[in-house]
């Protein structure tokens, strides 16, 4: 089975012989052979970063230690303009870290980050893509992943929603200056991606409407998406944005955006748009699902029936993929993946 062809057909909105089922390679359990996944009909997604960012005169140190039985990760940016400090706590079940103190908290941190980003260097680096693509073959596809768009970087990575809200209220001009600097850096990344051998450009924005709001999404994110589209569409590349949150309140804005693929789309009960609603709203876009994490934990029959419902909602419309795009408890892997594959096999026989 040529999973690469199946995935690209669906991503491009073409008629397909089978619904692709995919998983990020970083979520594949260690004991699972990737060749076995391919034989079962599961496509593997690898990600390459086609540029590297250098921060002259900035020293970034990461230290880990235990505090009250918890693993703490401390990140320190030592810069000529002052230091930035971040603290994250290890969350055991899913192997991720929760940040509770962000790099940017006060106006002085905004100014430090402005200087850091103004002086950073962005260089092309396609070696990673070529290696991953060669290793993967027809077992899946390699995304070229870029950074989150500037506002999402501040919201999710550098400042966090609480700090960013206060900073926007108290120091709007300074925050706007930082966003413009990040936008200029983004333009350099897009210039590099024009020459990327990758066909699928993945923007990991992790959009959820209540957190970003309509005005910010339209003012900042959609402007970035338009830049990507205007610069990259001529080279035949498709732009996908990871939108795995609740989206109904910005669904009309998404519909008008130039994004080709809504990736990580999460249906109910965790999302607030059904498959049929999303397909009717976003007629020109492919829909790449994040298989609903809460359903992942259910019994085999429930998972299979839920998958059948998703497929039936989509009917036989092209541009439809099912993916695992979030961490999950590994003990549920075999049960859940086999249930999803069973539903897809049945759909293949019907359609």
Compile the SSE list and pairings.
Blueprint: H1 3-11, E1 21-24, H2 34-40, E2 42-48, E3 51-54, E4 59-67, E5 70-79, E6 82-91, E7 96-101, H3 107-118, E8 121-124, H4 127-136, E9 140-145, H5 150-158, H6 161-170, H7 172-194, E10 200-203, H8 209-212, H9 214-232, E11 238-242, H10 251-256, E12 261-265, H11 275-281, E13 286-290, H12 293-296, H13 300-314, E14 320-324, H14 333-350
Parallel strand pairs: 1-2, 1-14, 2-9, 9-10, 10-11, 11-12, 12-13, 13-14
Antiparallel strand pairs: 3-8, 4-5, 5-6, 6-7
Helix pairs in contact: 3-7, 6-7, 7-9, 13-14
Description:
- The chain starts with a helix and ends with a helix.
- The mean pLDDT is 94.
- The chain contains 14 helices and 14 strands.
- The longest helix is centred in the middle third of the chain and has 23 residues, at 172-194.
- It is globular and about 65 Å long.
- It has helices at residues 3-11, 34-40, 107-118, 127-136, 150-158, 161-170, 172-194, 209-212, 214-232, 251-256, 275-281, 293-296, 300-314, 333-350, and strands at residues 21-24, 42-48, 51-54, 59-67, 70-79, 82-91, 96-101, 121-124, 140-145, 200-203, 238-242, 261-265, 286-290, 320-324.
- The chain has one domain (3-54, 122-148, 175-350): TIM Barrel (Alpha-Beta Barrel), CATH 3.20.20.210.
- The strands form 3 sheets. An 8-stranded parallel β-barrel has the order 1-2-9-10-11-12-13-14, surrounded by 5 helices.
- With 351 residues, the chain is of the alpha/beta class.
- Helix 7 packs parallel to helix 9 (214-232).
